[in-house]
Amino acid sequence: MSGQSITDRITAAQHSVTGSAVAKAVCKATTHEVMGPKKKHLDYLIQCTNEMNVNIPQLADTLFERTANSSWVVVFKALITTHHLMMYGNERFIQYLASRNTLFNLNNYLDKSAMQGYDMSTFIRRYSRYLNEKALSYRLVAVDFTKMKRGIDGVMRTMNAEKLLKTLPIIQNQHDALLDFEANPNELTNGVINAAFMLLFKDSIRLFAAYNEGIINLLEKYFDMKKNQCREGLDMYKKFLGRMTKLSEFLKVAEQVGIDQGDIPDLTQAPSSLLEALEQHFGFSGGKENKRSLRCQQS
């Protein structure tokens, strides 16, 4: 369907009558038009998150209400708008989402009105799970991994071993939920899903950067860890290698749908000898000292 539907116009008019400019903007960002939310409506909503007189819970609730719509287009665009505000809005927006016990309950969502509805419903379910996981991550660590300070003196590089071993699994879960979107180039067939994929792509780059720096920190600390920490660290590193393969597949899709190659990082696999050294060190922790490093301290 092209253009705003009669329902869209009536809903927007109702909000005009009641004076709810925020609700009207949400309605306009989540119309039945098969295209991503318009920039002007997203920009207005971002501005709203920075206005102290705007009720953030009410804004979020209006977006949640739109996900109860029967049209996959409206639901998908409500998720995209929410994701956009999590990324670019004032931090108090994601703080509020993180404070809620539940966000999107769309695991059984299905638009049966047309064949495209069936296809897109699959991605709506996956996308909603990622946004839930993104909010949960913030709830657990009080920071958005995609926005944290990076570099040699960044958060993940300077974190102590105990906190690092607790934080890395949270990043891993969010990373998994993102890659579970699993769209192929021939499934990115309209402006709505393309808008979602672009936001996921941007999150994937920033999330992986934090994840990668956490792994670098882990490797730097590994040979000084206690044996039980070595076991956890080795398991996390093995999982990291598996996720790199899956991320590489995700980035190939990004390249195939026209995302600038300069924006796509080069994922260089660590040599297999590194994993062998880690495994050898863990194996020697109960016996001889590994000549390459300090023994794992017995816990």
From TrEMBL:
Q: Which Gene3D superfamilies match?
A: 1.25.40.90, ANTH domain
Gene Ontology annotations for the cellular component aspect, listed alphabetically: clathrin-coated pit; clathrin-coated vesicle; Golgi apparatus; nucleus; plasma membrane
Asked whether the UniProt record includes DNA damage among its keywords, one would answer no
One GO molecular-function annotation for this sequence?
Answer: clathrin binding
Specify where it is mainly localized.
membrane
Keywords annotated in UniProt: Acetylation, Cell membrane, Coated pit, Cytoplasmic vesicle, Endocytosis, Golgi apparatus, Isopeptide bond, Membrane, Nucleus, Phosphoprotein, Ubl conjugation
Keyword Ubl conjugation among record annotations: yes
Which Gene Ontology terms describe the biological processes this protein takes part in?
clathrin coat assembly; clathrin-dependent endocytosis
The places in or outside the cell where this protein is found are: Cell membrane; Cytoplasmic vesicle, Clathrin-coated vesicle; Golgi apparatus; Membrane, Clathrin-coated pit
Q: Where is the ENTH domain?
A: 14-145
- State the coiled-coil residue ranges: none
Q: Which family does it belong to?
A: Belongs to the PICALM/SNAP91 family.
Q: What's the subunit arrangement here?
A: Binds to clathrin; involves primarily the C-terminal sequences, but the full-length protein is required for full binding capacity. Binds phosphatidylinositol 4,5- bisphosphate. Interacts with PIMREG; this interaction may change the subcellular location into the nucleus. Interacts with AP2A1 (via its alpha-appendage domain). Interacts (via N-terminus) with VAMP2; VAMP3; VAMP7 and VAMP8 (Via N-terminus). Interacts with LC3/MAP1LC3A.
Q: Provide the protein name.
A: Phosphatidylinositol-binding clathrin assembly protein
UniProt source species: Gallus gallus (Chicken)
